[in-house]
Write a structure and sequence with these properties.
The complex is a heterodimer. By secondary structure, chain A is an all-alpha fold. Chain A has two domains: 6-208, ABC transporter involved in vitamin B12 uptake, BtuC, CATH 1.10.3470; 288-413, Winged helix-like DNA-binding domain superfamily/Winged helix DNA-binding domain (Arc Repressor Mutant, subunit A), CATH 1.10.10. Chain A is built from 18 helices and three strands. In chain A, a hairpin with a 2-residue loop joins β2 and β3. The N and C termini of chain A lie far apart (83 Å). By secondary structure, chain B is an alpha/beta fold. Chain B has a domain at 4-82 and 157-251: Rossmann fold. Chain B contains ten helices and ten strands. The two termini of chain B are 31 Å apart. The relative contact order of chain B is 0.17. Chains A and B meet through α7, α8 and α17 of A and α2, α3, α5 and α6 of B.
């Protein structure tokens, strides 16, 4: 679509406003749904809405959005009800129950839709736009509905932030404290259902649940705080919604649903890879650092063990002795040697190397710490295991002085 | 007025009774241990008293009233495995949850609640960790966090489900000191416990449970070879440990 007049520009603005509000409330309420492990219930709700949409059209006989959405809400809720019944009265587990309901409802929805389309006048229903979403038809009235939903979600989340947080984290503690955990869950699912139903025209039944899940999952990578996660998730939703809508508007071949979800997936992918601390790269870097630090400790210990008998004279150590160690590969050893030389811990002399005074001090400290820890783990197993860290901190920083004195004495005796 | 009154309580999961006709009353504040083999229904008994599981029959009263009426006076430490420790909250956030009950609907914790939560974290010795995300804690620190949350409830009766499970020796000592402190303040604490060796040292009142109530009363009179044999059946390895524990108890004046 190419727009050059104010009318089209206005339309695009209306659509963007609607999608932003929708994505923001889905993103925020999606956090609680994901943390409460109800994300798939949202998906069942969305798929379950399709037969209701079709039935509502058959009953109303025309394409009236409010009636269609009411039908969607009713059949989505019926889907959730069937899941609850299956779980309660049969031995079917929740994931299987969700799978069954989701496909049966969606299948019957598609069947109903085909029947309607073959009817005279049925094609005017344009119900297929509900499967993958279409924002082009969004008008100002629709945005009012969406704004109402966003406002409601915002007010409820602000009011019940503490209650939702508690129930999502520890429902039985909440119940002991007297909170009606069932009704809080119910309200949460109601908000999820409203977000899903209002989002159906824009995003479609197939992908609406993703708008609940993806921004929340992406936001979790960046923070350890629920409040920040909510805000980030809403922001990610808006970003995905706006980007997706613009792409879909200018490349008319892509329906809005997939386009918005792809934009969200991009955000998710970036979060997954690049988020500090929780991201894949950061974790990889941290693991590599830890392994290198462990090798370095071993390296210094081996050097110290070889040097110790002749102390205070600092004898050269043959390189072959280090090469024989199974703790590292040749490449890793090269890196350790370079690292140690740069830090001026060792001096290379042909096929031998020697600890510098600075290196000796450092190696001595490392070796002593390793030996103390070894003894500590043997003698105070329980306590030591609790305090053990991969980085092997100086024992002085974790254990009491009396314990260290005792261990040090024992070490001298050996 | 009894503090806790469990009357003829039976609980079943899928027709299989996990608690059978349990009848127990506590009249004075006590540090109570619930002891029995795996699958004896120890946690279920606590959950039955808290109203967390449906009763097939029987009633539970706390301070002569149904549990639902006295929620403000009850504190709870669930099993550590019962929550997702990757949840995006800090140690302080969790401790603050203890104050939610007294806050009521809609109100957020303020400076007063924060001060209380920090005091409770101080008591369990993890004040310096208050800004940490809870997943970064060790098992013992997580257990301390749960205990701080329960302390922030400022309850009169505490129910604790295996608070000593999987914690280091230092934490075990710290938790026991706090239980004793609560007991001295006249609170009642009901603790599910699995380590028979520490039973006589920790508890002054005991419930021996194996689906049915085997014995209950002051530890000194209940913690006997015969009662333990009845509770644990023929599990000899356990009984040997117990023998040592009983002797240890007899030695202490």
């Amino acid at each position: 679509m190419i727009f050059w007049d104010w009318g089209s520009l206005y339309n695009v603005f209306v659509v963007l406003a609607g999608v932003s509000l929708l994505a923001a409330s889905a993103g925020a309420i999606g956090c609680f749904a994901v943390l409460r492990r109800r994300a798939l219930t949202g998906d069942a709700l969305a798929h379950g809405a399709l037969p209701g949409l079709c039935l509502a059209f058959l009953i109303a006989g025309e394409r009236s959005l409010p009636i269609l959405l009411l039908g969607a809400l009713a059949s989505g809720a019926a889907g959730i009800g069937v899941i609850a019944l299956l779980r309660r009265w049969t031995r079917i587990k929740e994931d299987a129950a969700i799978g069954i309901v989701l496909s049966v409802f969606f299948g019957s929805g598609v069947a109903l839709m085909s029947i309607i389309q073959n009817w005279p006048g049925g094609s005017r229903a344009r119900l297929e736009s509900f499967i993958l979403g279409k924002t082009a038809g969004m008008v100002r009235q629709d945005v009012y509905v969406i704004a109402g939903l966003a406002g409601l979600t915002l007010v409820v989340v602000l009011l019940l932030y503490k209650e939702f947080k508690l129930v999502a984290f520890d429902p039985s503690f909440a119940r002991v404290q007297g909170w009606p955990d069932f009704w809080l869950d119910f309200l949460l699912m109601l908000l999820v259902a409203l977000a899903v139903v209002v989002g159906l025209p824009a995003v479609g039944v197939l992908l609406m649940a993703a708008l609940l899940i993806i921004p929340a999952a992406a936001a979790r990578f960046w923070t350890e705080r629920l409040g920040i996660m909510l805000i980030l998730s809403a922001a990610f939703g808006v970003l995905a919604g706006v980007a997706g809508t613009l792409v879909s508007t200018f490349l008319e071949k892509i329906p809005t649903g997939p386009s918005i979800i792809l934009a969200g997936s991009l955000l998710f992918g970036v979060s997954l890879l690049f988020a500090p601390k929780r991201g894949w790269l950061a974790r990889r870097r941290e693991n590599a650092r830890q392994r290198h630090a462990a090798r370095q400790r071993r390296f210094l210990s081996v050097l110290y063990d070889a040097t110790e008998p002749a102390l205070p004279h600092c004898v050269p150590v043959p390189l072959a002795q280090l090469q024989a160690e199974p703790a590292w590969t040749t490449r890793q050893l090269t890196k350790l040697l370079e690292d140690a030389q740069r830090k001026q811990w060792i001096e290379r002399e042909g096929d031998t190397l020697r600890l510098t005074p600075r290196g000796l001090e450092h190696a001595g400290q490392t070796a002593r710490n390793e030996r103390l820890w070894k003894l500590y783990l043997e003698e105070y197993t329980d306590q030591a295991v609790a305090q053990l860290q991969t980085d092997l901190p100086l024992l002085e920083s974790v254990a009491e002085p009396a314990v260290i004195d005792a261990l040090a004495r024992k070490l001298k005796l050996e | 007025m009894p503090i806790l009154d469990v009357h003829d309580v039976t609980v079943a999961y899928h027709r299989k009774p996990v608690l059978w006709d349990v009848d127990w009353t506590l009249d004075e504040p006590r540090l109570v241990g619930i002891v029995g083999p795996n699958g004896a229904g120890k946690s279920t008994l606590i959950k039955a008293m808290l109203g967390l599981v449906p009763l097939v029959s029987g009633t539970v009263n706390v301070f002569d009233q149904p549990v639902a009426n006295v929620r403000r006076r009850i504190g709870y430490v669930p099993q550590r495995e019962s929550v997702d420790w990757d949840f995006p909250v800090s140690v302080l956030d969790v401790a603050l949850m203890g104050t939610y009950g007294s806050l009521g609907w809609f109100r957020r914790p303020g400076a007063k609640q924060r001060a209380l939560a920090e005091k409770c974290l101080e008591m369990v010795g993890i004040r310096d960790l208050e800004q940490q995300q809870i997943g970064q804690l060790s098992g013992g620190q997580q257990q301390r966090t749960f205990l701080a949350r329960a302390l922030a409830q400022q309850a009169d009766v505490y129910f604790m489900d295996e608070p000593f499970a999987g914690v280091d020796a230092a934490t075990e000592q710290a938790i026991f000191q706090i239980l004793r402190h609560l007991r001295q303040q006249g609170k009642t604490i009901v603790v599910v416990h699995h380590d028979l060796r520490t039973v006589p040292r920790y508890f002054d009142h005991l419930i021996l449970l194996n689906v049915r109530l085997v014995a209950s009363g002051p530890t000194a009179t209940v913690f006997t070879d015969e009662n333990l044999r009845k509770t644990y059946g023929g599990r000899l390895s356990i009984l040997e440990t117990v023998g040592a524990a009983v002797q240890a108890q007899e030695r202490t004046p």
